[in-house]
């Protein structure tokens, strides 16, 4: 469902760009179709939760937004380690410490930051909301993270053929490796927070914070090094299913739903 929505929308602008632009307008980060394509994982997640759990199930699913307890080291990782990777990656390519301000100045930066909150983090309703707990019923968290990261990366593939997007200037392979790496990195955070949705969303938001400089491809390899260290440090929980978050719809009886 996620791929059908996103690839269906984006394919219009790849296969028939003139027709799509004339009929629906130029695609951009503020275009309704861009939001639709980005929100596809969440739309799919809500559809599945409503189908299997009804409105009560959706309410229980959304209660995972309020699981806010998380170990302090993971909070510091989100707040400090991610920006450090971007800044260091940018410096390695002789780039700036911070991204330049947009034309709107500080106000424009705040507006863009809020817009980012309404884009990428919403995907987590699908990736960590539904896919991660279901996969962790059948495999260790490390493998679940790798699978989701691979799917996540491939899901972005059409954007690399869409002119006018940042992806058009990037190479796909480092991006795919980066997606797998980031999906692995967020996995112990997700499990440590008992299946929380809010912390993966904040993790995702930090990844696309407009103030951080473009550090491609160095940030990918730096995150990969960090991921190897994190997996090794947390190998007892990353390589075993015991203690993994497996509930999509939280229940009182302890049965995974």
Please tell me about this protein's structure.
It is a single chain. The chain has one domain. Helix content is 64%, strand content 0%. It is built from twelve helices and no strands.
Total strands: the figure is 0
Q: What structural category characterises the helix and strand content?
A: mainly alpha
What is the distance, rounded to the nearest whole angstrom, between the alpha carbons of the first and last residues?
Answer: 20 Å
β-strand percent reads under 5%
Most strands sheet: none
**Count of structural domains:** 1
Spell out the blueprint of helices and strands.
Elements: H1 2-15, H2 17-24, H3 32-38, H4 40-62, H5 72-92, H6 105-117, H7 124-135, H8 141-155, H9 172-192, H10 198-207, H11 218-233, H12 235-238
Helix pairs in contact: 1-2, 1-3, 1-4, 4-7, 5-10, 5-11, 7-8, 8-9, 9-11
């Amino acid at each position: 469902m996620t791929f059908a929505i996103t690839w269906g929308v984006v394919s219009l602008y790849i296969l028939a760009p003139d027709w799509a632009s004339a009929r629906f307008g130029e695609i951009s980060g503020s275009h309704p179709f861009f939001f639709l394509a980005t929100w596809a994982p969440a739309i799919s997640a809500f559809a599945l939760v409503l189908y299997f759990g009804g409105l009560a199930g959706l309410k229980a699913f959304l209660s995972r937004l309020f699981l806010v307890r998380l170990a302090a080291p993971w909070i510091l990782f989100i707040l400090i380690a991610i920006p450090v990777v971007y800044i260091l990656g940018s410096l390695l390519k002789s780039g700036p410490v911070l991204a330049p301000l947009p034309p709107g100045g500080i106000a424009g930066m705040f507006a863009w930051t809020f817009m980012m909150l309404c884009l990428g983090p919403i995907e987590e309703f699908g990736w960590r909301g539904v896919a991660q707990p279901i996969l962790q019923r059948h495999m260790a968290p490390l493998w679940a993270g790798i699978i989701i990261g691979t799917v996540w990366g491939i899901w972005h593939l059409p954007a690399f053929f869409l002119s006018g997007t940042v992806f058009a200037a990037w190479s796909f392979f480092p991006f795919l490796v980066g997606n797998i790496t980031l999906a692995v990195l967020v996995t112990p955070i997700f499990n440590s927070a008992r299946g929380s949705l809010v912390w993966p969303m904040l993790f995702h938001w930090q990844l696309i914070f407009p103030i951080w400089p473009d550090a491609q491809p160095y940030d990918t390899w730096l995150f990969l090094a960090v991921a190897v260290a994190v997996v090794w440090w947390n190998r007892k929980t990353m390589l075993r299913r015991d203690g993994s978050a497996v509930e999509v719809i939280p229940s009182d009886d302890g049965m995974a739903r």
